[in-house]
Design a protein that fits this description.
Blueprint (H helix, E strand, L loop, with lengths): L30 H9 L6 H11 L6 H13 L1 E4 L7 H12 L13 E5 L3 H7 L6 E5 L10 H14 L3 E5 L2 H5 L3 H15 L3 E5 L2 H4 L2 H13 L4 E3 L11 H18 L4 E3 L7 H14 L12 E3 L2 H14 L12
Parallel strand pairs: 1-2, 1-8, 2-3, 3-4, 4-5, 5-6, 6-7
Helix pairs in contact: 2-11, 3-12, 3-13, 5-6, 6-8, 10-11, 11-12
Amino acid sequence: MTHVLDPGTLAAGTRPTPGSGAALDDVTRSDAALRAFLHGLPGVDQVGAEQRAATLGTRSIKTTAKAWAIDTAISMVDLTTLEGADTPGKVRSLAAKARRPDPTDLTAPPVAAVCVYGDLAGVAREALAGTGIHVAAVATAFPSGRASREVKLADVRDAVANGADEIDMVIDRGAFLAGRYLEVFEEIVAVKEACGSAHLKVILETGELVTLDNARRASWLAMLAGGDFIKTSTGKISPAATLPVCLVMLEAVRDFRAATGTQVGVKPAGGIRTTKDAVKHLVMVNETVGADWLSPDWFRFGASSLLNDLLLQRQKLRTGHYSGPDHVSVD
């Protein structure tokens, strides 16, 4: 089921310059051309994708390799709180956990980022100052994306002004499903420009895109528009991140780099709760795109409860026994 796009299909240098919306080639000059390109991508064999994901999910790793995988997964976590009841105190507590996930073991690595609503980005930035841990903020009328472009861009600028150095935007799924691809493309370009120096993660909300073909097309659309990461889900609907969807997105970033020379990250989010889930994803990354993506710079987990299970499994490897539930904090 794996298809590699012919690099000649999209010549190097045709990707829009990040933040400028410039250097658009014929693919992105019109809705008709963009539609023709996206629908000309190889179709996804859904049965094949599901079988491949299931096979990779059965791989078992032990001892030293498992210890490496757990620490790598911890370093890839975007520790997340996205609730209406979030408070500055909760964000500070989350930031403390992000800096030192296991206070009893200083060898545990810090996480990649803390992800919050934009109005709390300043609290996170202050709490994480000097740590190198990123502050990610959701924006563009998260999670629905149902707002005017003017409002969405104001949302992005506000989050960046508050201290976010990563923005997680949502695409307009209604426009995408209606085939208004250029509209979605132009909105991503505009959001990227509003991000300034902040990195942009583009949330596809694959559970609403219905098909794996749509997940592939949306992945390519987001990358053509300048997204630094493509992200599966908001975590607010089901299904969220699934292994077949992640496989399709990994194939897309692999093919995009082969075609353009530009590497884009992947972030599965929603429903990834256990160490076993995380390890399955890391195996898939290694088998599909290779070690180049086995870094927080190129692969993240959007999660809230995953970190606790990783820490409990880490201590089991270190001490030979599981800790009680009070070993990890309740987020």
